[in-house]
Amino acid sequence: MELLVLRHEVAVLRRTNRRPRLEGADRAVLAALVRRLPRLLREHRLVTPGTLLRRHRRLVAKKWTYRNRAGRPPVDDTIVALIERMARANTGWGYRRIQGELLKLGHRTAASTVRRVLKRLRVPPAPPRDTDTSWRRFLRAPASGMLACDFFHVDCAVTLRRVYVFFVMEAATRYVHILGTTNPDGAWTTQQARNLLMDPGDRADDFRFLIRDRAGQFTASFTAAFSGTGIKVVKSPPRCPRANCYAERFIGTVRREVTDRLLILNEHHLRTVLDHYATHYNHRRPHQALRLAPPRPDRPTAEQGYTSIHGRSVLGSLINDYEPAAA
């Protein structure tokens, strides 16, 4: 009866915990006593001959395991970071070219190591990287050589006529050129682009790319006007306003600060308002991307210690500008 009770307790414990955790002493006791059981009972125990053989192989492997010295040593993380940085920044560099640059920096690596690292990082070799799409190459271009253009519309209060505003922004300095307001077509847009490039005060030679959307006003003649000065026109993907983020940010800013807070009477009124706002935007308004400095400030930053401040109203107190009062 005692054996039956013990067997039933073991059966109950197996239902709650099918794989109990055994200590070393438990394994030794079970391994010693299992030999005294009949074969039929031995097959239903926790410790089977296969268990004993597996434990024996584990002990042998643990005793005779040596340090694995075969194979190449791992590549240092610093070298991996340099290889990735050089490959992504220089799309035309191959494995040997990167190997030479690393050698100049004091890192001796093989070309096969460079290839293995780039393959692990999923960076394609030089020919596919060099012939990448123009949009990705445009995104990697420095912002100092980038222009962004777009249209935004304003509805007049009296006639309900919709007037379109064409502007171009310098991405590096956030300087905005308001080129005109009208109901534009391809010829008018091309002429505005020519006027911008002919302005002697603008540095057309410093720019390499112009990003635009796929509006119908941007015709082939518009592209040719910029291509003649060495500026490559890049079209944003369809229905992707965030691709032209600089222009979209300016549109949101001018709407929040001016056009959504005023009743525009006609096109002449709109031009006057935008001229005043462009002057404030380019010369007085702080910009987060420029560390809270204007794109082209018309006066130096005031020194600390001024207590007398003079306020100046822009667009009839719609915007307030502050500067230190003259002594």
From TrEMBL:
Stretch list, region Disordered: 285-305
Any GO BP: DNA integration
Domain Integrase catalytic: 138-302
InterPro entries from the UniProt entry: Integrase_cat-core (IPR001584), RNaseH-like_sf (IPR012337), RNaseH_sf (IPR036397)
Gene Ontology terms for molecular function: nucleic acid binding
Name of this protein: Transposase InsO family protein
